[in-house]
C-alpha cells in the first residue's frame, strides 16, 4: 500500500522523523541484543569446552614469548614447548607443596589463637557491659550447633554434588593441557587456518585485529602476573615480619586474587586483616590494613601505568561491570576471564573498525607498556 495514500492515512510522511529513526534503531538494537543472548547461551551450554580453551589461551599468552625466544635461538619448537610446560609444572607444584606445608604448620597456632579469641569474647560478654549469663551464651552456642545439625543433610548433598564435579574438573584440566600444547606448538598456523572462513577482502583486517587483541592479552597477562607477584611479596613479607600466622598461604591467596582486578585484591586483603585481628589483635590488624592499602596504591599508581599501556587499560567501571557479569555467568572462573576477554576485544575492535588498520595497530603498539612493545618486536622478528 503506497505511503500517504487515502487507504493509508498514517503513512511514513505522517510519522515524525524522530519516531522513524527510533524505530529503525530499536529493531536493529533488538537484533543485536538477541544475537548477544544467543551467543551467551551457547557459551553457557558449552562452558566445559569454552572455559578450558579460554584458560589455555591465557596460559599460552604467558608462555608464548618464552617459547618463541627458544625457537628463534635454534631450539626445536616441540622441545621448547615441553621445556616450558615442565618448568611451569615444577614451579607451580613446588609453590603449592610449600604453601600446603606452611598451612599445616601454621594452622594449629591459628586455631589456638581463635580459641583464645572466643574465650576472650565470651568473658567480655559475661563480665562486660552486656552482662550476659553463662547459661545464655551456652544456649546460643547450642542453638548454633543445632542449626548446623538441621542443615547437615543439605551440606552433605552439597558436598556430594561437589564431588560429582571431579570428573568435569579432570576433563577440563586435560582439555586445558592439550589445547595449551597445540597453541604453543602451532597457534599462529591454527589462527591463519581459522580466519580463512572470512572473505578475502576483509581477511587480513580480521587477522590484524586478532593479532592486536592477542598482543594486548599478552601484555595484560604478563603485567598482571608481575603486579600479583609484587603484591604477594610485599604483603607476605609484611605479615611474616609481624609474625602473623599463615603469612605465606595468605600471600599466595593475594597472588591468586590479584588476577581478578579490584575485587580479588580486596577480598584476599580483607582475609589477611581478619587473620591478623584474630591472631595478633586490633593494632596488628590496622597495620596490616595500612600495608595492604600502601601496596594497592603502589600497584595502582606506579606498577600498572608502567607495565600496562593505554591499549590494555580499561575504565574501572567497565572492569566492575564485566567482573559482575562474568561472575553471574560462570562464577569465579567467569570473573577471572572477564577482564582479559575485554582487553582482547577492546584492542581487536579498535583495529577491526579503524579506517587504517595498520596505523591503528601501530598506535596500539606505541601505546602499550614496555612488556607489550617488546613482545610486538619479538613477533615481528619471527
Automatic annotation (TrEMBL):
It comes from Mycolicibacterium flavescens. Belongs to the autoinducer-2 exporter (AI-2E) (TC 2.A.86) family. The keyword Membrane applies. Its main location: membrane. It holds the Pfam family AI-2E_transport. GO terms for biological process: transmembrane transport. It is a multi-pass membrane protein. This is AI-2E family transporter. Residues 360-382 are annotated as: Disordered. It is found in: Cell membrane. It comes from the Bacteria. One of its GO terms (cellular component) is plasma membrane. Keywords: Cell membrane, Membrane, Transmembrane, Transmembrane helix, Transport. InterPro entries: AI-2E-like. The keyword Membrane applies. The chain crosses the membrane at residues 25-43, 49-70, 82-104, 159-184, 220-244, 250-274, 281-298, 318-345.
Amino acid at each position: 500500500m503506497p505511503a500517504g495514500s487515502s487507504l493509508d492515512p498514517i503513512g511514513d510522511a505522517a510519522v515524525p522523523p524522530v519516531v522513524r529513526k527510533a524505530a529503525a534503531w530499536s529493531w536493529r538494537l533488538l537484533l543485536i541484543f538477541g544475537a548477544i543472548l544467543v551467543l551467551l547461551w551457547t557459551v553457557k551450554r558449552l562452558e566445559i569446552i569454552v572455559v578450558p580453551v579460554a584458560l589455555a589461551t591465557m596460559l599460552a599468552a604467558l608462555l608464548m614469548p618464552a617459547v618463541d625466544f627458544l625457537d628463534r635461538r635454534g631450539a626445536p619448537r616441540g622441545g621448547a614447548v615441553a621445556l616450558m610446560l615442565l618448568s611451569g609444572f615444577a614451579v607451580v607444584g613446588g609453590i603449592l607443596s610449600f604453601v600446603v606445608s606452611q598451612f599445616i604448620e601454621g594452622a594449629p597456632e591459628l586455631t589456638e589463637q581463635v580459641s583464645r579469641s572466643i574465650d576472650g569474647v565470651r568473658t567480655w560478654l559475661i563480665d562486660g557491659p552486656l552482662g550476659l549469663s553463662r547459661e545464655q551464651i551456652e544456649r546460643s552456642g547450642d542453638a548454633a550447633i543445632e542449626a548446623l545439625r538441621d542443615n547437615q543433610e543439605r551440606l552433605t548433598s552439597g558436598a556430594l554434588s561437589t564431588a560429582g564435579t571431579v570428573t568435569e574438573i579432570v576433563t577440563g584440566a586435560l582439555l586445558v593441557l592439550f589445547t595449551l600444547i597445540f597453541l604453543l606448538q602451532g597457534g599462529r598456523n591454527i589462527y591463519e587456518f581459522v580466519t580463512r572462513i572470512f572473505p578475502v577482502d576483509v581477511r587480513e583486517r580480521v587477522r590484524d585485529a586478532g593479532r592486536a587483541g592477542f598482543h594486548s592479552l599478552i601484555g595484560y597477562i604478563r603485567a598482571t602476573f608481575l603486579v600479583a607477584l609484587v603484591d604477594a611479596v610485599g604483603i607476605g613479607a609484611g605479615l611474616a615480619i609481624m609474625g602473623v600466622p599463615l603469612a605465606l598461604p595468605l600471600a599466595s591467596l593475594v597472588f591468586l586474587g590479584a588476577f581478578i582486578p579490584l575485587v580479588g585484591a580486596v577480598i584476599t586483603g580483607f582475609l589477611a586483616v581478619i587473620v591478623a585481628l584474630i591472631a595478633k589483635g586490633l593494632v596488628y590488624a590496622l597495620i596490616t590494613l595500612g600495608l595492604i592499602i600502601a601496596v594497592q596504591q603502589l600497584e595502582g599508581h606506579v606498577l600498572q601505568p608502567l607495565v600496562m599501556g593505554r591499549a590494555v587499560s580499561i575504565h574501572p567501571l567497565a572492569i566492575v561491570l564485566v567482573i559482575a557479569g562474568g561472575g553471574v555467568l560462570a562464577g569465579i572462573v567467569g570473573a577471572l576471564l572477564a577482564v582479559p576477554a575485554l582487553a582482547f576485544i577492546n584492542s581487536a575492535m579498535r583495529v577491526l573498525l579503524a579506517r587504517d588498520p595498520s596505523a591503528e595497530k601501530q598506535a596500539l603498539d606505541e601505546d602499550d607498556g614496555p612488556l607489550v612493545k617488546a613482545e610486538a618486536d619479538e613477533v615481528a622478528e619471527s
